[in-house]
Amino acid sequence: MGRYVIRRLLQMVPVFIGSTFLIFFMVYALGDPVAALFGDKAPDPATAARIREDLHLDEPLWKQYLLYMGAIFQGDFGTAFNGQPVTELMASAFPVTLRLTLVAIVIEIVVGITLGVVSGLKRGRPLDTGLLVLTLVVISVPTFVSGYLLQFLFGVKWGWVRPSVSSEARLDELILPGVVLALVSLAYVTRLSRTSIAENVRADYVRTAVAKGLPRHRVITRHLLRNSLIPVVTFIGADIGALMGGAIVTERIFNIHGVGYQLYQGILRNNAPTVVGFVTILVIVFLVANLLVDLLYAVLDPRIRYA
Amino acid sequence: MTTIDKKTSATSAPLLEVRDLHVEFHTRDGVAKAINGVSYSVDAGETLAVLGESGSGKSVTAQAIMGILDMPPGRIPKGEILFHGEDMLKMSAEERRKIRGRRIAMIFQDALSALNPVLSVGYQLGEMYRVHLGLSRKEAKARAIELMDRVKIPAAAARVNDYPHQFSGGMRQRIMIAMAMALEPDLIIADEPTTALDVTVQAQVMDLLAELQREENMGLILITHDLGVVADVADKIAVMYAGRIVEQSPIHDLYKRPAHPYTRGLLDSIPRLDQKGQELYAIKGLPPNLMKIPTGCAFNPRCPKATDICRTEVPALVSVTEQDGGELPGRGSACHFWKETIHG
Lengths: 307, 344
Prior knowledge:
The complex is a heterodimer.
Chain A: H1 2-30, H2 33-37, H3 45-54, H4 61-72, H5 86-121, H6 126-140, H7 143-157, H8 175-200, H9 204-211, H10 216-245, H11 248-253, H12 259-268, H13 272-300
Helix pairs in contact in A: 1-13, 5-6, 5-8, 5-10, 5-12, 5-13, 6-8, 7-8, 8-10, 9-10, 10-13, 12-13
Chain B: E1 16-27, E2 30-42, E3 47-51, H1 58-66, E4 74-83, E5 86-87, H2 93-99, E6 104-107, H3 111-114, H4 121-133, H5 137-150, H6 156-159, H7 169-181, E7 187-191, H8 199-216, E8 219-224, H9 227-230, E9 236-241, E10 244-250, H10 251-256, H11 261-268, H12 308-312, E11 318-321, E12 327-333, H13 338-343
Parallel strand pairs in B: 3-8, 3-9, 6-7, 7-8
Antiparallel strand pairs in B: 1-2, 1-4, 4-5, 9-10, 10-12, 11-12
């Protein structure tokens, strides 16, 4: 197990270098950050040249990348155009997004798995068919539609919640945005656990559990659910990374100043240090989440042993 | 909880008696009549072998007794299953659950798929004690180790936390047996317990089962399609075909003198060393489609002796006697021509 973790951590190194270099290449090579810095005004050539030298923009790309990586490992993610260190932006953005992701994941797990289990146990009945149609609708509707719709209904028309989230982004304010963010994944979790349950409910070991005289709830929770959740856990684990980085639309709709919001601003203004810095962190989140899922897999299914 | 009266039936009713049981499955393609009037009984300490091909209804009968049929699509339109004289089909779901595992236990064919792959065998064995007797996790584990010792699994204490896939096929089946034995039930139903095993291991597992049955004086229903397996352990045998019992008999009589052409066909198709080199006999044709069971005797399309009456009239299970009318206790055949078959 220990050796497996070390090997996986080592495998992360090339993936990390490759993906960050790609981002670095795209952001720095495809636009001129100095021109972007001056906005619409044309920069004074001498000033521009000085900035380029300060920021090592006159160096070849590979050298820029090495310098950047070297700085990152000393905790220096550079400075955004407004003079704020990128780390400061991160410190304000990541906790907000983390809270939003947490709300979304909890909703996804609790609601998604519950619906999936109910649906799977009632396969072919009206309830199951209804849920299948409903999830299909949810999957088909883009987030910006469902987001604005729910915001309008709950926030404006009925006034149950405030339509936009305050800068503190407290947990209770994040419930509606969390639902919006979770919606599509929730539909997938429902379908995934439904299929898994419906498949396993006919398994021999479930029949054995019934033949042992176990009460129905015990058959379902201890025997059926435990086996059926293995693929669902994999999906949810991979989804954590996607939710953290993919909250751009949701965060914009509800005016949440999290990772998605900062990334959006960064891309809009061609603000290279912000974009590269945030994406780098997201790459790490993805890699770690995937490793954790694989390790969890072995915990859930003893037939899988890593060596 | 612990004072459920066990083995206290003072009446003379058999341990288990199935009476005129019918089971059908409603599917999209029609109604499959899996069981069409099966009756048999088992006493304490007795072993009944139920023999038949796939689809003959032998497993469905067992599932109906256990109460683990999928209903729907399954349905029991008619029949009684008397356990200590009480009809289990009239009991509430909760009453039946309490009988399952505790007083009637079942051993399944393929232990690898019948055991939960993600739970340790100790947990799965201990669960019987925790749920039915309310023992603590720790006590249940200690009892699980005792059980594993009892079914002769080496180093039980060291292996109690292992998972099913870490055991060999024979050891896994021993665990299945241990699970069935856990609460010392009155009756065990073993559904092809040795089919998935190597021949050498088959005998060991069968011996173990027979030994435990003797010690506990349990009733045993042994479901099999293998005539060789049952010869040494069963007291009596019921041969099933298309959801009916076609012949029943004390075990050794059946081998000597079958009273139904189907049984004869089964016996003739056992490979024998003294007929090495000759072509092996096989019953021609296939078992019937349960949605379209032939009229008359269900076996008539495959029967070498079939005549017109076999195609129109369903033969009843009648007592079989000696040629001079002398009684043959326990013997019955559902063939219009049982006399010719047994004596001819």
